[in-house]
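Protein in question quoted for reference:
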Amino acid sequence: MTTSLGLIRTVIVDNDETELQELVIGMHEAHIPVLPLRYSVDAGVIGVPDHKSLCIRILFVDMNLADSSAPSPKDIAPTIAEVISAVVPVDNGPYALIFWSKHRHLADEVLQILGERHTEIPMPIVVSALDKNDFKMPESADARKAWLEGLRKGIDSVVQTSPQLTALMAWEREIGKAASATLHALTEVLSPSIPWDIAKHADNLSAVLGRIAQEATGRKNAADRPDEAIHLGLQPMLVDNLERSSATADRIREMWVAAMPQVKSNSPIAFSENGADRRLNAFYCVSEITTQIEKTDRGAFVAISDDHLDDDCFKSHFGKTVAELSEEFVDVSDLTRIQKSEIRKSVKWGFIEISADCDHAQRKSRLYRYVLAALVPNDREDNTKFKGMDGSTTDRRHNAIYRMPEIELADGRPLVLFANFRYLLGLPAKASILGDVVLRIRSGILAELIHNYSRYVARPGVVSFSHES
């Protein structure tokens, strides 16, 4: 449970125990919490904690960990790669790599080798080198104050070379402050007893948390998934505290302007990297992490099971063959017979669960509501563009279809997710047509999808007559 005390953001790796302790003492006196880790040629990095407790933003590494008398970049780089792989989690995010060494002149060559031969390790957003000789702790108490100031300025100068890292670290700090404010608000709900009654206070806090969880998702859901229930219950308060905290944070606007100067120009910002827009859409629209996501969870994209991907099953459920139904999601009019067959086979058929929130909260026995959906490869954009009745080009076959922005998942292929409101099924949880959960549709895009569905089913039909001469 000690990992819940906080994430470790600053790490120093050195093979010299004396120098390591000197740096740690200096960091602590500069009020910078840091984890010291010793390296040995035989054992590697010693004492690395569980990666779940690591969220590295600054990594200090002695460049000459092998203690070579004449270190060379080609010898140094594999050891640095070993350290980064051991210490920095693969899902870590941006961090600064600072070589803490007497051989800082080798840093550029080491970095080049890392970028060419060790692309599997997390890439830092900024790399620099500080000379150990400039930061040796002085013995004199009078000189220590200037030394500490030099240490702070040295570290700040490295981090501030990346305005993006500076702003994101500040934002991350504000999230922590907002979480603390949320916990404080919870305890403010309770009236402290005089004299103190610690046990009663804990019981009262337990009741407050439990009631929040029950009101957020319903009593049955809270009983089954208390962690999700309390998360959803506290989330609005956390978001509100984050908004207030960010608005009043010192220099936060200045940091963000430096991190994204293009915003000030009030002009459209184009991505220089191919596929970045699709990956960003995926980040906001879907999640490929489906652990603990049930087929019946709201927003789950559930694949149609393999033994139901045939014409008989499709005719039974949808009134059309696989090829006929694919026409609603893919335009194959200009393709050869072989191309038509290939693109139809590449469609990933499934359902999106869209039952009302209250249905999930009340957990009553019922059929779950699924809308037919399809993940369509978009290698050829013409296949996901359609001719309208008036000859114009549209991005969907008809207005009963919802089209999600183009996304790119882990396999790197561009995809479009369609949902067709003409095909709505009520299914039990164990229906054989339901295969595995492939994706989870995020709440924002799911709300838009359901809004479009409600507008479609609420369209009035009007009988009217035109005057014909």
Summary: The CA atoms of residues 252 and 354 lie 39 Å apart.
